[in-house]
Amino acid sequence: MSVKVSISVTTYNQEKYIEQTLESLLMQIANFDFEILINDDASSDKSQDIIRQYEEKYPAIIKPIYQRENQYSQGKEVHYTFNYTRAQGKYIAYCDGDDYWTDPLKLQKQFDFMESHSHVSACVHAGKAVNEKGTRILWTQRADQKNTYLNTGKVISSQGMFASNSLFMRNYFTGDYKVPDWFHEAKITDYPLYLILSTKGDLYYMDDIMCSFRVASNGSFTQVVLNDPNRKKTHLYEMIDLLESFNQATNSLYEKEISDQIKHNLYDYVSTDINVIKSNPEEFQQLYDLVPLKMKMKLNARYYVPGAVRFLKKVKEPIVMVFKPKEEFFIES
């Protein structure tokens, strides 16, 4: 079997989701061979038992590693360390163990595009955010409302702009290639990879919904980081460190885009939790001084006229619904 595409999957205590994930990968209709590389990060539930059942059924396709100790907690980027470096494919596709693909032709579409566009380093697409059970669509994640190329500047501002399980990239991880130090130092997983890929060629966005990703599932970013004020604060500074490291690595070539994104991150942090202002006014003042005037005005309105902000929140969704169904709402970065 000559593998053309390697699918990288990581799991940790995702017994409720992993079967749906694997079925969505195995349903792919393609005119090439693919392998599914799984790194289970020492799950304590039945995730490994489920994976073993699939390994026995599809031994030529499913190739797991069963960790005895959790590697992510030791600071390792598990997709890269345990899957990318053993990938046999010309291309690598990405999917976490709680997400799934919805289009049986997803791989074929991305493969065909990459084969005919050698200047493109990776291909991504639209996806649907769903609740933990996968029964309700929360929103549709789009990088644009049309097919388009994404250069490095756009990728810098792309945080959350497309689903990680939409990624289909060239395999740059064979031979002597080593990822830069700042990639290993970053505490975030997929975003640093997008930055690396953007320096090797454009990313291409397909405005085609071909995957779903769960929000607030067990072990998800929403559950672990966004719902924990301390982790959320730590994540903010990790993102700033990452962007500053990337700026240095690229000799300040994208300094303006990076500066704008840092300001955007600062604003998002203090605006989404007004308790930040009340609990630590000195720290807030330092962050407040860094954001542009327009953002300061929004923060002032949020703090001094909270009733108006609540009113705007109430009327925002009905206004949007007049023009566009909720699941098709365009998420802007």
TrEMBL record:
Superkingdom of this entry's organism?
Answer: Bacteria
A GO molecular function assigned to this protein is: hexosyltransferase activity
Give UniProt keywords alphabetically. Answer: Transferase
Transferase: is it a keyword of this entry? yes
* Residue ranges of every copy of the Glycosyltransferase 2-like domain listed in the record: 6-171
Q: By its UniProt entry, which InterPro entries does this protein fall under?
A: Glyco_trans_2-like, Nucleotide-diphossugar_trans
| Ranges annotated as spanning the membrane | none
Quote the protein name from its UniProt record: Glycosyltransferase involved in cell wall biosynthesis
